[in-house]
Specification:
Elements lengths: L2 H86 L1
């Protein structure tokens, strides 16, 4: 083989390596983009769940506060009934 034929073979090998590297990087970046989108979707879902949990907790706290007020009124009423019953006795 002549020298220029080896240069052609080396050039083709270089082009093959270059194309392999470019294709590998493109596929790698495409996969990274898909993984990033998946992570973002999971993060948004976790955020939504956390906001829902906070909202539910606040609603529960509000209901418990109302219930505590009702229980205080009920204790007051039971105390009045007990006094009346003691007076009747």
């Amino acid at each position: 083989m002549k020298w220029h034929q080896w240069q052609e073979v080396a050039g083709l090998a270089g082009i093959f390596v270059f194309l392999t590297v470019v294709i590998t990087v493109v596929v790698w970046q495409f996969g990274a983009t898909i993984r990033a989108r998946g992570a973002l979707a999971r993060e948004q879902e976790y955020r939504r769940l956390a906001e829902k949990a906070v909202q539910t907790q606040e609603e529960t706290e509000r209901k418990l506060t109302e219930l505590d007020g009702r229980l205080a009124d009920l204790r007051k009423s039971v105390g009045s009934v007990e006094r009346i019953l003691k007076e009747v006795d």
